[in-house]
Amino acid sequence: xxxxxxxxxxxxxxxxxxxxxxxxxxxxxxxxxxxxxxxxxxxxxxxxxxxxxxxxxxxxxxxxxxxxxxxxxxxxxxxxxxxxxxxxxxxxxxxxxxxxxxxxxxxxxxxxxxxxxxxxxxxxxxxxxxxxxxxxxxxxxxxxxxxxxxxxxxxxxxxxxxxxxxxxxxxxxxxxxxxxxxxxxxxxxxxxxxxxxxxxxxxxxxxxxxxxxxxxxxxxxxxxxxxxxxxxxxxxxxxxxxxxxxxxxxxxx
Length: 253
Fold this sequence. Notes:
- The protein has eleven helices and six strands.
- It has helices at residues 2-8, 40-53, 56-67, 72-84, 91-94, 101-109, 134-140, 159-162, 174-188, 211-224, 235-244, and strands at 13-18, 31-36, 145-152, 191-195, 199-203, 247-251.
């Protein structure tokens, strides 16, 4: 599997390293270094992308061209519309056309209407920060080796396109992941640290500076991946986390 993935990534700067004894963090000057935990699901998505586009680089280029005509609110609208599609809400409530972010979030919140999770009051959170380490990688790796993808600093948001995963359950498609990563890169200088078939780990270069900004970011995370709030009793607690911790953990069931 490693060999096949590496062949698809032959136009990129990559390394293959043994999982055992892996030294972290991995850094390369003027690059974003992404740990790829290989899986057959990722390989299958790469195969589909290459089959449609001719090469992985062509797929990335076509996706970036499509993304150039979209705004990040388009991604929020599409994600929420897909979540609401099979709900009992009315067609008007499901229609995201022309809605701004707060309206989009209010519509998404209807799925969680009876949940205390949506409490927006900022509360002190005692959640410990997540730290990616070699033990975490060894526990989740299906292989003895991993791939490290080096992307230019300003191209970090392209990571979901080079390593396509998602489009299952509640996980957004790579195109919308990339749009959202670009938004977060511009605002919080994010670096994608690791990806597996169901997980993204991201390092933020800075935290939200105000409670209002932190709550907005918490809502974005909640739409992107509702599981991000696992371990936090409310949205307000999670917003407090975001003001303290710079590593973001997204996982989809």
